[in-house]
Automatic annotation (TrEMBL):
Family that this chain belongs to: Belongs to the cytochrome P450 family.
Listed GO MF terms: heme binding; iron ion binding; monooxygenase activity; oxidoreductase activity, acting on paired donors, with incorporation or reduction of molecular oxygen
Repeat listed as a keyword: no
One of the Pfam families matching this protein, by short name: p450
InterPro entries listed in its UniProt record: Cyt_P450, Cyt_P450_B, Cyt_P450_CS, Cyt_P450_sf
Protein name (database record): Polyketide biosynthesis cytochrome P450 PksS
Length: 415
């Protein structure tokens, strides 16, 4: 039987020991547990800190199917009964505009928004950032080198994508301290799940972004907010709430993935010195190396929420209508039926069809930017810092809790 706990996400069957899947200690190495689930219970229930039941899907083929299957809704209102909706956790009214984001919508709303956003968030825009990303990477590493030892998360992996997205959006340099402070407050929502304490910061942040958006409508500039404001498909364009929701989505979904890729990816290379030396000796391996690090460290451990529109059977188990489904990307990416020697890090791996950026209609829009930032950050780091090493015992490394993302709290290193 499954045991429920009010403040943890626990699971148990007669053969599987109870595990808290949102606990930071579990995050350090969740892969043996997922291997057991793939073998014994590929569709498995857990109870989240919100007391909501969720179904973990762990085999590659099943995860891929869930990501593509329109019977799983992103918007719970398209799946749940009125009775189920009444039992959902309360969301402060001021957060309602943020629900108009692509990640939480189904077709036709999702299709419409994605078409409009594609007109703004173009490959050309991302490629234009290459030189700025490289310059910022060098600047951050110059400062780190002078110190001799740093927290690679706080001093490199975090400020790099945060500054890049700020510049792309068009945040004035004078506002960077406030922008960074508010963004970090919003990002913390994913780990503490206590929205009430975040209300003041998010209210100020939303007010700031609304003002900035209004300025761009009146005085267009060469930045992403202007592009979002001006994006049109015939007579259709993004509303103020939709622009605001898109900015938040870019900050949270895109930014966090890159922080975790750079931080956890660097740790993986330090823990596999043969692969680190291989990359250092041949920088042209950086593209397959990034794909392998995405597969191996799983910056997004579970796909964002989906809800069954009807009773759906997977691997012999029926998931009832309206229930929360979590497709475990971190498990799919270690499935031996799709990856040879899946628990080994191999930066020359061929045919690496990992699911790190999802699949289907909700495939990550920011994947090209995250890849570019990861490639530049990691290749520059390993080339510039030949003496790069951990500055703490491996067992002292702390991971962040949560159930969607997988990333480090800190990564002390020396050069």
């Amino acid at each position: 039987m499954m045991k429920k706990s009010p403040d943890s996400a626990t699971v148990s069957t007669s053969s599987i020991a109870p595990v808290n899947v949102v606990d930071a200690r579990f995050k350090a190495n969740p892969f043996p547990f997922y291997a057991q689930l793939r073998a014994e219970a590929p569709v498995f229930t857990v109870t989240l800190p919100t007391k909501q039941r969720a179904w973990l899907i762990t085999r590659y083929d099943d995860v891929l199917s869930v990501l593509k299957d329109e019977r799983f809704a992103k918007d719970r209102r398209n799946a749940m009964t009125p009775e189920q909706l009444k039992k959902m956790p309360w969301i402060p009214p001021m957060f309602k505009p943020l629900e108009r984001n692509m990640l939480d919508l189904d077709s036709p709303d999702h299709t419409r928004l994605r078409a409009l956003v594609h007109k703004a968030f173009t490959p050309r825009l991302i490629e234009q950032m290459r030189d700025q990303i490289q310059a910022l990477t060098d600047e951050l590493l110059d400062a780190a080198e002078r110190k001799g030892s740093v927290d690679l998360i706080a001093d490199f992996a975090l400020p790099l994508p945060l500054t890049v997205i700020g510049r792309m959006l068009g945040v004035p340099a004078r506002d960077n301290p406030r922008f960074h402070r508010w963004t970090k407050a919003v990002l913390s929502a994913g780990t503490n799940m206590n929205y009430v304490v975040l209300i003041p910061s998010i209210m100020r942040f939303m007010g700031y972004l609304k003002k900035l958006t209004k300025e761009r409508r009146a005085h267009p500039q060469d930045d992403l907010i202007t592009a979002l404001v001006q994006a049109r498909d015939g007579s259709d364009q993004l509303s103020e709430d939709e622009v605001l929701a898109m900015i938040f989505l870019l900050l949270i979904a895109g930014h966090e993935t890159t922080v975790n890729l750079i931080g956890s990816g660097t740790l993986a290379l330090l823990e596999h010195p043969d692969q680190l030396e291989k990359l250092r000796g041949d920088p042209t391996l950086i593209k397959p190396a990034i794909e392998e690090l995405l597969r191996f460290v799983c910056p997004v451990e579970m796909a964002t929420e989906r809800y069954a529109r009807e009773d759906i059977e997977i691997a012999g188990t029926t998931i009832p209508r309206g229930e929360l489904v979590l497709a475990v990307i971190g498990s799919a990416n270690r499935d031996a039926s799709h990856f040879e020697n899946p628990d080994a890090l191999d930066i020359t791996r061929k045919n690496n069809r990992h699911l790190a950026f999802g699949q289907g209609a909700h495939y990550c829009l920011g994947a090209p930017l995250s890849r570019l930032e990861g490639q530049i950050a990691i290749t520059t780091l390993v080339q510039r810092m030949p003496g790069l090493r951990l500055n703490t015992a491996p067992e002292q490394i702390r991971w962040r809790g949560g159930f969607i993302l997988r990333g480090l709290e800190a990564l002390p290193v020396s050069f």
